[in-house]
Amino acid sequence: MATSCIRVFADAAHIEHSKQRLAAAAPGLEAVAAVLALAGNDVRLKMLYLLLDQQQLCVCDLADVLQMNVSAISQHLRKLKDGGVVQARKVGQTVFYTLTPALRPVIEPLLGSVSTSLTPAAV
Amino acid sequence: MATSCIRVFADAAHIEHSKQRLAAAAPGLEAVAAVLALAGNDVRLKMLYLLLDQQQLCVCDLADVLQMNVSAISQHLRKLKDGGVVQARKVGQTVFYTLTPALRPVIEPLLGSVSTSLTPAAV
DNA sequence: TTCTTATTTAAGCAAACGCTTAAATAAGAA
DNA sequence: TTCTTATTTAAGCGTTTGCTTAAATAAGAA
């Protein structure tokens, strides 16, 4: 630290106010950042997009659509599951993944701009 | 990638449909993922949160509030600027950063859940 | 000019990422 | 049981991240 600014115009009141607000919001911000970090990856965001469209998809389907290694897909799914973004349901030997209901309203707006840009008019 | 699934219940129609939708949405999704990746970092999300509250902040202010090295802050700001999320305005020797007006409506909802959790009732 | 302040940049490095390959599970079919 | 399919896991490896330190710019003050 010892980062303290010397500048004259430093508005100590504003700084202090910001520190307070930040301290209160920090836990929430960190939780949000964790979800955004998961969504902030090309492959994973595409997965979420696909899961939002098709209710459920198995590892194999995703690997097929995304043209990627099944193992790579599985590892991405694990991260999403650990982050509580998706959930798994096993049927026989295949595992179906779904967006977690609780986080669906969090994920949906992240893709809102893309959905709208998919309307006939746009693009 | 010879990833093709052999499974019997593979709904070829759904797979094909998903591939089509994905192909159309891919560019938009990648653009969104880039912004989410920037926001999906504790320090940077806090910066955005602070900038949303205080119209503008200089490097030194942010370093002060976040209790971090000025250099580290500056490097985060460069990423945000390169990503078009914030913009810089130099006044004398100090540089003030602001949320880019165009991306403000994209950033704001990312912090919505945190803001609401700050209302008196919550927490 | 020299001195101080504010910010950026370059270099280095440990940690985290994301993919590949290969092996390990799990479950149904022969 | 053995064989095939679906998925997960472990190990390895090159790339990216994010921080630290130190040096380089930029701009005002003495």
From TrEMBL, chains A, B:
Database matches in SMART domains: HTH_ARSR
GO molecular function, one term: DNA-binding transcription factor activity
Naturally occurring in which organism (per UniProt): Hymenobacter perfusus
SUPFAM superfamilies the record matches: Winged helix' DNA-binding domain
Lineage, broadest ranks: Bacteria, Pseudomonadati, Bacteroidota, Cytophagia, Cytophagales
CDD domains in the cross-refs: HTH_ARSR
NCBIfam families tied to this protein: HTH_metalloreg
Protein name in the entry: Transcriptional regulator
NAD listed as a keyword: no
PANTHER family (UniProt xref): ARSENICAL RESISTANCE OPERON REPRESSOR ARSR-RELATED (PTHR43132), HTH-TYPE TRANSCRIPTIONAL REPRESSOR CZRA (PTHR43132:SF6)
Any matching Pfam family: HTH_5
Segments forming domain HTH arsR-type: 24-118
Keywords in alphabetical order: DNA-binding, Transcription, Transcription regulation
Alphabetical list of InterPro entries matching this protein: ArsR-like_HTH, HTH_ArsR_DNA-bd_dom, Metal_resp_trans_reg, WH-like_DNA-bd_sf, WH_DNA-bd_sf
Highest taxon above the source species: Bacteria
